[in-house]
Amino acid sequence: MASWIEFFTAEPALARQVEERFGIRKHKTLATLRKDGSPRISGIEVEFADGELLLGMMPGSLKVHDLERDPRIALHSPTDDPPPGNPRGWPGEAKLAGYALEVDFPDSPVLGGRRFRVDITEAVLTHLNEAGDQLVVESWHQGKGTRRLERR
User: What is the total count of domains within the chain?
Assistant: First the structure.
């Protein structure tokens, strides 16, 4: 697993693009695992701060209970539609997978709020190539580096 700064140091260009896609809007999508192992998706806000990727959660939320049982997560950036009449102008999307590990949250704006640091195992940026005629999937896995796949 890698902290955000470790991923950023290993792959700065990809990390900047992933962070940019996560920054387009406030609300992202978080996937956790329910008690029975089935997936749960929830809205979430993320924060990139001090070399870390952080998640804040309300006390007693279902996603907190999920993470107490199993810290594995997936995060999906907000997405944009391509500009009208220009399907080649789609800016792409980003996904992260890893583990959410609880950290202190003394300045929580909510009494009993919880904060989790994300250690990353996978980062994916999906977008179109410059010509706009092929889908590009750039993925990074810790210990394996980055891979780029293009397909029509």
Answer: 1
Domain harbouring 88, CATH code: 2.30.110.10
pLDDT tens for 8-29 read 999 999 999 999 999 999 999 9
Is 41 inside any structural domain? yes
Scanning 39-141, the segments in alpha helix (DSSP H) are: 62-69
10 Å CB burial of residue 119 (0-12, 13-18, 19+) is: buried
Could you give the 3-state DSSP secondary structure of residue 85? coil
Domain range for 88 is: 4-125
- Rounded to whole angstroms, the Cα distance separating 55 from 41 reads 14
Does residue 136 sit within a domain? Answer: no
Return d(Cα 28, Cα 51) in angstroms, integer. 19
List alpha helices for 23-117, DSSP H: 62-69
The structure's pTM equals 0.93
